[in-house]
Amino acid sequence: LSICFRTVEPLEYYRRFLKENCRPDGRELGEFRATTVNIGKFCCSITTADGSALVKLGNTTVICGVKAELAAPAADSANKGYIVPNVELPSLCSERFRSGPPGEEAQAASQFIADVIENSQMIVKEDLCIANGKLAWVLYCDIICLDYDGNLLDASVFALLAALKNVQLPSVTINEETGLSEVNLKQKSPLVIRKHPVATSFAIFDDTLLIVDPTAEEEDLGTGTVTIVTDEEGRLCSVHKPGGTPLTGAKLQDCITRAITRHKEVKKLIDKVIKSITPK
Fold first, then answer.
1. Is it the case that residue 163 has pLDDT exceeding 60?
2. Where is each Exoribonuclease phosphorolytic domain found (predicted)?
3. β-pair type (135-147, 82-88)
4. Angle at 136 between CA 135 and CA 142, to 5 degrees
5. Long-range CB pairs of 36-42, under 8 A, 24+ apart, other chains included
6. What per-residue confidence (pLDDT) applies to 19?
7. Mean pLDDT across the stretch 191-200?
């Protein structure tokens, strides 16, 4: 089919492929783009981060850096630390984004990540407490999109999980006499990750057809999107459906089943990469 037809009638162009159960990029409707993850110093040179990861989902490329800092816990949650996620969509990653303060899409993505952390209990905030009412860890999780071609949420959750798996926190004690904290950088331990949430996103076409891992063009042409987050036990952590076409119970169940399968693929990929970089 000609380039002209794709430009003038993009939706009709897509429908012709979807009738044959495939997409213009050659993928089947339930097929993900090639997915890669690099962790820690193998992914980038964020030397100031305590953990980092770079995830590529087709052309969509996301980097996550985690910085751990010490702070006093909040008065109403004296035994908890903090996790502060932030998603950035700079103008360099796509012409759809502008320079300046975070736009609506970046804010929505940051809120989505915060909800995933909370709902999945991937990190229990009590685990970040060092001394009750006195000292706790704050984890600043900066997720930056380097190249945007759809399905930001799957790539962001994957990059966050991989970066957190890479975090090593130094041993911290409070000196009884001075009341000051003492950090031992030679004695580090990995962050306790209780659950491994993985996101799986779908675009809805013509109100009925579901396609997995949509590109930016597919998201624009679709009548809605839905993101399912599951953990390693197949438990549903969250369903993110920002408007658009409603889904029947049966369709939603289809999405959950596919998300559980995807979880196994992603977990296998992370485990393989971590094993390859762990000192023998």
1. yes
2. 32-170, 197-260
3. parallel
4. 140
5. 37/158, 37/159, 37/162, 37/269, 37/270, 37/273, 38/273, 39/162, 39/163, 39/165, 39/166, 39/270, 39/273, 39/274, 39/277, 40/166, 40/277, 42/277
6. 87
7. 95
What's the mean pLDDT when you consider all of the chain? 90
Instruction: Tell me, rounded to whole angstroms, the distance of Cα 214 from its chain centroid.
Output: 15
Structure-token pair, residue 26: 């050659």
- As a whole-number percent, the residues of the chain with pLDDT over 90 amount to 66
Domains annotated for the chain, with CATH where assigned, are: 31-277 (3.30.230.70)
45 has pLDDT over 70: no
C-alpha span between 63 and 43 (Å, rounded): 9
Torsion sign, CA atoms 214, 21, 250, 207:
positive
